[in-house]
């Protein structure tokens, strides 16, 4: 395995470990063990745990952008928004690593100027990408991103939700009688495949 391939493997392992335990709660030993290398070798790839966290955070944002690009390929307008929203819902309903790591990044950024700077640049790029792919107005892009963040919260708290125009009504009903989705059935699973809450009313 080349050094570049090992570096990529290490970033992926770090994302999983940081997503679960955060920066302070994650040891480089745990990351090295997941990769199958020694700690000294890990520090040959990344000079510090902080450098690895920043690289993993950058990859997290890049993964989201790539997912949006792949979903919207060949589509435009509302169709592109629906496809991108559907892809994000699939991510939330599948591997929880991306959501968990997003939340860890946001929490850590409050006290970390360098991480805030990285997040600022990456969020700006993601915003531009969504607008360019869809051709939608800034208001629609803002709405799409805002709904996506809402879905993060709903998924984190395992609050059931459905797609599109039913979402506001479902949340009103839920707020009056709070409950969680059945065990083993993540909230994001309530949005039908291929159509998503994000980007729809």
TrEMBL record:
DNA-binding region boundaries: 27-46
Annotated ranges, domain HTH tetR-type: 4-64
Gene3D superfamilies: Tetracycline Repressor, domain 2
Pfam families xref list: TetR_N
Keywords from the named record: DNA-binding
Segments traversing the membrane: none
Parts forming coiled coils: none
Family annotation (InterPro entries): Homeodomain-like_sf (IPR009057), HTH-type_TetR-like_transc_reg (IPR050109), HTH_TetR (IPR001647)
GO terms assigned for molecular function: DNA-binding transcription factor activity; transcription cis-regulatory region binding
Annotated protein name in UniProt: TetR/AcrR family transcriptional regulator
Species, as recorded: Actinomadura harenae
């Amino acid at each position: 395995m080349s050094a570049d391939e090992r570096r990529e493997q290490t970033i992926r392992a770090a994302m999983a470990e940081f997503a679960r335990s955060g920066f302070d709660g994650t040891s480089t030993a745990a990351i090295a063990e997941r990769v199958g290398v020694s700690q000294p070798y890990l520090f040959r790839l990344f000079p510090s745990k902080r450098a690895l966290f920043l690289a993993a955070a950058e990859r997290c944002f890049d993964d989201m952008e790539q997912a949006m690009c792949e979903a919207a390929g060949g589509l435009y307008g509302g169709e592109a928004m629906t496809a991108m929203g559907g892809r994000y819902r699939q991510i939330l309903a599948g591997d929880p690593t991306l959501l968990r790591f997003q939340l860890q990044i946001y929490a850590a950024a409050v006290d970390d100027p360098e991480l805030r700077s990285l997040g600022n640049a990456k969020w700006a790029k993601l915003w531009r990408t969504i607008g360019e792919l869809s051709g939608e107005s800034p208001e629609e892009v803002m709405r799409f991103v805002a709904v996506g963040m809402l879905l993060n919260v709903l998924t984190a708290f395992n609050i059931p939700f459905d797609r599109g125009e039913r979402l506001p009504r479902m949340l009103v009903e839920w707020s009056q009688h709070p409950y969680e989705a059945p065990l083993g059935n993540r909230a994001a699973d309530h949005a039908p495949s291929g159509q998503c809450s994000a980007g729809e009313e």
